[in-house]
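Thread title: Can someone regenerate the structure for this chain?

I was given the following input by a collaborator and told the matching C-alpha cells would be attached. They weren't. Posting the sequence so someone can regenerate them.
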Amino acid sequence: MDRVEDFLKKAGTYYLATVEGDQPRVRPFGTAQIIDGKLYIQTGKAKEVSKQIAANPKIEISATIGGEWIRVAATAVADNRLEVWKAMLDAYPMLAGMYNLEDGNMHVLYLKDATATFYSFTGAPEIVKF
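Best answer:
Regenerated them for you:
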C-alpha cells in the first residue's frame, strides 16, 4: 500500500473512473493518503463523482510516471470520522479553501479490496493487494 500511495503522490494527478448508469466517467484527482492503515482519497459530497460512487462504489484509478503506470481497482468506502477528515486536510492544506470540518461536504473514502497493478514497457506487471 505504501508503494501505491508513493506512486500516486509522485504522479501528482491520477485519474479516477466511476460508472454512471452504463457510461464510464473519468476525472483527475490528486489526493492519496494512508491513514490508520488504509489508503484514502477525497472529494466533495456535492460533486457528481460522489453520487456515482454512492450508487456503485467500484472504482478504478490510473496514473503514469514516465514509462511506468499503475491501475488500481477497488471498492471506495466512505469514512465519516472527523479525525480522518482532519488528517486529509492536514495532508493537503490546499483543500482548506474548498472544504472544512463543519460544512458537511467532505467525502473521504478508503480503498477496500484493492488490487494495484504496476506496469512498465520493460518488465512484467507487478500486483499488490491490500
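The chain has three helices and eight strands.
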